[in-house]
Design a protein that fits this description.
By secondary structure, this protein is α/β, with parallel strands linked by helices. It has 2 domains: about 60 residues, DNA polymerase, domain 1 (Orthogonal Bundle), CATH 1.10.150; about 280 residues, Aldolase class I (TIM Barrel, Alpha-Beta Barrel), CATH 3.20.20. Helices cover about 35% and strands about 20% of the residues. The strands form 3 sheets. A 10-stranded mixed beta sheet has the order 3-4-5-6-9-10-11-12-13-14. Helix 11 links the parallel strand 13 and strand 14. Helix 10 packs parallel to helix 11. The chain is elongated, with a radius of gyration of 21 Å. The chain starts with about 25 loop residues before the first strand and ends with a helix. The N terminus and C terminus are likely disordered. The protein binds S-adenosylmethionine and iron/sulfur cluster (SF4). This is Probable dual-specificity RNA methyltransferase RlmN. Specifically methylates position 2 of adenine 2503 in 23S rRNA and position 2 of adenine 37 in tRNAs.
């Protein structure tokens, strides 16, 4: 087959992996529009066939080339010989009483990631992973407990989005995307931006960047690169502490960066994108939920136009952290609100389905089988 511009490299070899078991076809969701156009041209097909194929993938929710009924039969069989639409499988699906659905996706090389569909009024939001594992090692988070294996490709990120879209009835559309699943999106900026380009394209999922949020632990050079992309995505910075001493304990990568450079990069992002910033603060009982922390946080936020998203901790089996009491959550909230900070206390959705990010993989996936924490 001719070489195709594939973004970025597809499957990586896994030691001990059976090479014959890995897919030999190209993941179509990794192929750029140009790549598909060239492939079609080499076989004598006009460029508009590429548009038709894209429409089938993103609006038509096609899972096989066979169903692409307005394509010539010969093209359908040539496509099926060269490409896979999906290369992963669904290792586990959980549905909670509030309609939240969480999928444990097993990738072609055996790696596992999680993605979630949340129903809230008219909103159909999805939370998507960017890496297998995470290198940042936040002490309370299940996703980073075993480090990072690799970045996801553009196609693997898009496949999560499409798998979640396919769970909606035909008359419903995805409305919001949050890059808040497993992994640090800004450590995989090329893969994430390539996938989001397709997600916001009217010929893709057609979701406005104003409805797309990238959540980051706070990597200043990558925040600047994101700003330089010129697309006004919402940025959410995971703060979790009002000072370096505590943040460095909870978010080890802070030891090398420090809060001030993170805040300065967030301010630059706000200045260049015009998008309101969100700071996330996971409230850990007895750790960062004191009145002193709340007062110090109000001083850090003074003069900044931000939304403070406070998330009561979702306990992770094997980790020594707990959800704060109702009293301490409401005290924390009162202090922030009294100082004029915009605060949102995120409702926990899908609590009974391993809701903490990375938990489904530990409890139901292959990593759980080798993990002492489960
Ligand atoms: C899983 S991270 C992924 C995005 C990015 N790596 C980050 O840290 O912002 C998304 C958010 O979930 C939060 N989080 C992780 N584990 C959690 C838990 N057990 N309970 C509540 N929030 C959690 C993180 O602190 C972060 O704000
Ligand atoms: S909170 Fe985010 S950055 Fe920290 S370990 Fe989890 S996924 Fe990684």
């Amino acid at each position: 087959m001719t070489s195709l511009p594939v973004l970025p490299p597809t499957q990586t070899a896994v030691p001990g992996d059976d090479a014959d078991a890995r897919p030999r076809k190209v993941h179509l969701l990794n192929v750029t529009d140009e790549g598909l156009k060239d492939w079609l041209a080499e076989r004598g097909y006009p460029a508009f066939r590429g548009k038709q194929i894209r429409r089938w993938l993103f609006s038509g929710r096609a899972e096989s080339f066979e169903t692409m009924s307005d394509l010539p039969a010969k093209l359908r069989s040539e496509l099926a010989e060269s490409f896979d639409i999906f290369q992963a499988s669904e290792a586990h699906v959980s549905t909670s009483r509030d309609g939240t659905e969480k999928i444990l996706v097993r990738l072609a090389d055996g790696g596992e990631v999680e993605c979630v569909l949340l129903r809230d009024g008219d909103r159909r939001s999805i939370c998507v992973s960017s890496q297998v594992g995470c290198a940042m090692g936040c002490v309370f988070c299940a996703s980073g407990l075993d480090g990072v294996d690799r970045n996801l490709t553009r196609g693997e990120i898009l496949e999560q989005m499409l798998r979640l879209q396919h769970r909606l009835p035909a008359e419903e559309r995805l409305s919001h995307i949050v890059m808040m699943g497993m992994g640090e999106p800004l450590a995989n900026l090329p893969g994430v931006l390539a996938a989001l380009d397709v997600a916001r394209n009217p010929d893709g999922l057609g979701i406005s960047p104003r409805r797309i949020t990238i959540s980051t632990v706070g990597l200043p050079p990558a925040i600047d690169k994101l700003a330089a992309s010129g697309v006004p995505y919402n940025l959410a910075v995971s703060l979790h502490a009002p000072n370096d001493e505590l943040r460095s304990q909870l978010v080890p990568v802070n030891q090398k960066i420090g809060i001030e450079p993170v805040l300065a990069a967030a301010d630059r992002y706000f200045a260049s994108s015009g998008r309101r910033l969100t700071f996330e603060y996971v409230l850990l009982g007895g750790v960062n939920d004191s009145e002193a922390c709340a007062h110090e946080l109000t001083r850090v936020l003074r003069g900044r136009t931000v939304m403070m998203n406070v998330i009561p901790y979702n306990p992770v089996e094997g980790l020594p952290y707990r959800t704060p009491s109702k009293e301490s959550i409401s005290r924390f909230r009162q202090i922030l609100e009294a100082s004029g900070v915009n605060v949102m206390f995120r409702q926990r959705k899908g609590d009974e389905i391993d809701a903490a990010c990375g938990q489904l993989r530990r409890n139901r996936g292959s990593i759980g089988e080798k993990s002492p924490a489960t």
